[in-house]
Amino acid sequence: MGAAFGARLDAVCAALPPPEFPVLTGLRPWLTRGGGQARASWKLRVIVDGLPAQG
Question: What is the pTM of this model?
């Protein structure tokens, strides 16, 4: 993700009302920082950690 897209995503998440979007606003720091391998690893951990909840 490029820096410009990250900044735009951060601005969009910052504008969301927390009562209506608690998950997105709560995850904002992790959604809008880092890049490359760190971001890919985080996304994979989120998916893998969520699998047991689907069972």
Answer: 0.53
